[in-house]
Design goal:
Low-confidence stretches: none
Mean pLDDT: 93
Strand content: 25-35%
CATH topology: Aspartate Aminotransferase, domain 1
Distance between the termini: 40 Å
Structural class: alpha+beta
Number of domains: 1
Shape: globular
Number of strands: 6
CATH architecture: Alpha-Beta Complex
Length: 115
């Protein structure tokens, strides 16, 4: 059974599920959040994986000690993914702009694929 912090999920649910673009789901058995059919944010073990533009991911990896490459199940580093690791679930609220960037990024990608 996938292990994750349920307190992290409660905070993310409060921040994300009022957005009509976001729907809940699962990724590798972990709670996740999708924009359309695309995964944008997911809980993974003790952290939260987030898909954002590569330039934003690189900047956070360089400047934020709470951010590491997202490598679920030991997979290689993915260029547009980061993992935010925080102990206090409420601290994820400080990353709301990162979560919003993820939602906008995935929405834009889907709009491009329709054209």
């Amino acid at each position: 059974m996938a292990k994750f912090n349920p307190d992290h999920k409660a905070v993310l649910d409060d921040m994300l599920l009022d957005n009509p673009l976001v729907r809940p789901g699962k990724m590798f058995g972990f709670p996740a959040y999708f924009v359309g059919k695309k995964l944008c944010i997911c809980l993974y073990e003790e952290g939260v994986g987030v898909k954002i533009p590569e330039q934003s991911a690189d900047k956070l990896l360089e400047t934020d000690r709470n951010v590491v490459p997202f490598q679920p199940l030991g997979k290689p580093k993915m260029r547009e993914w980061i993992q935010i690791n925080l102990t206090n679930s409420e601290d994820y609220k400080r990353y709301k702009s990162v979560f919003n960037e993820s939602i906008r990024f995935l929405q834009a990608q889907q709009e491009k694929s329709i054209l």
